[in-house]
Design goal:
The chain has 14 helices and five strands. The protein has 275 residues and is mainly alpha-helical. It has one domain: P1 Nuclease (Orthogonal Bundle). Helix 6 packs antiparallel against helix 7.
């Protein structure tokens, strides 16, 4: 078993190196923050089960792996698993879903996989990485995005006084965060202040609820006032201050809910007692 696990970790390390150029730094910080928050809400039994799967692998780093491999030919289909497209007038109950999958179906798939005792160590590690990653993705509002602007990717914006154009999706992927000199783990600790009642409420929701919450945030996301939207919209300090608390709340909710998902998988009695 030790030899098998060692080979899995070697494989993971190779994949991370091969795909490291594809990982966006700001997006990486968001995923690390979510994992840091989740780690404080999992039970000792859950932590031991995760260690049995991942060993001493840094879970924040592991959560980045799905981004690092989606451009590799063998994982090409996984690029569809990070988001779901839904226009403003559409509802989830009758949505024409992508046949190649989306973040909703992928979350269900990897959660179910982790319930399968016959998975190989490599499959367990893959499923854990995807679950951690996709819980964060679905809480990023533009991963539940409009088709016409590809979840904000097609909306060019100018960030404050920077000359280079970025896009709205990257703004919400992490540019709004105020990391300054803090590590993602320190940022997670700073955000991780909420009541047990609020935690229980968040953890009793469903994956579909998470997607609906993200969709409902579009009014704030596309409100660029007092600047008029143009070919290259200006992201002002007013926009940042108005929306940073929303991003931070979504990261906190994702971390709390990721912990609940992991507890249900590996320590269901503990999670039932909390609710």
């Amino acid at each position: 078993m030790i030899l098998k696990l060692r080979s899995v970790y070697q494989w993971l390390a190779v994949c991370l190196v091969l795909g490291s150029s594809q990982v966006q730094a700001f997006g990486a910080d968001g995923h690390r923050i979510v994992v840091a928050i989740a780690k404080t809400h999992i039970s000792p039994v859950t932590a031991a089960a995760i260690k049995g799967i991942a060993g001493d692998t840094d879970l924040g780093q592991l959560s980045l792996w799905p981004d690092s491999i989606r451009h590799l030919p063998v994982w090409e289909q996984s690029k569809y698993w990070h988001y779901v497209s839904i226009d403003d007038h559409e509802q989830f109950h009758n949505l024409q879903r992508n046949a190649d999958g989306d973040v909703l179906s992928a979350l269900d798939h990897f959660y179910t996989q982790l319930q399968n005792p016959d998975l190989s160590p490599r499959q367990q590690l893959e499923a854990l990485a995807f679950l951690m990653h996709l819980v964060a993705d679905i809480h990023q509002p533009l991963h539940v995005g409009r088709r016409d602007d590809r979840g904000g990717n097609s909306i060019g914006v100018k960030w404050l006084d920077q000359k280079k154009t970025t896009n709205l999706h990257r703004v919400w992927d992490g540019l709004l965060l105020d990391l300054d000199s803090k590590s993602p783990e320190e940022y997670g600790r700073q955000l991780n202040t909420t009541s047990m009642q609020q935690v229980a409420q968040w953890q009793s929701s469903t994956v579909l609820d998470w997607a609906k919450e993200s969709k409902a945030l579009r009014t704030q996301i596309y409100n660029f006032r007092p600047v008029t939207q143009s070919r290259r919209t200006l992201i002002t300090q007013t926009y940042i201050e108005r929306n940073r608390p929303i991003v931070e709340l979504r990261l906190l909710m994702a971390g709390v809910r990721l912990a609940a998902s992991l507890n249900r998988l590996f320590d269901p009695k503990h999670q039932q007692q909390k609710q």
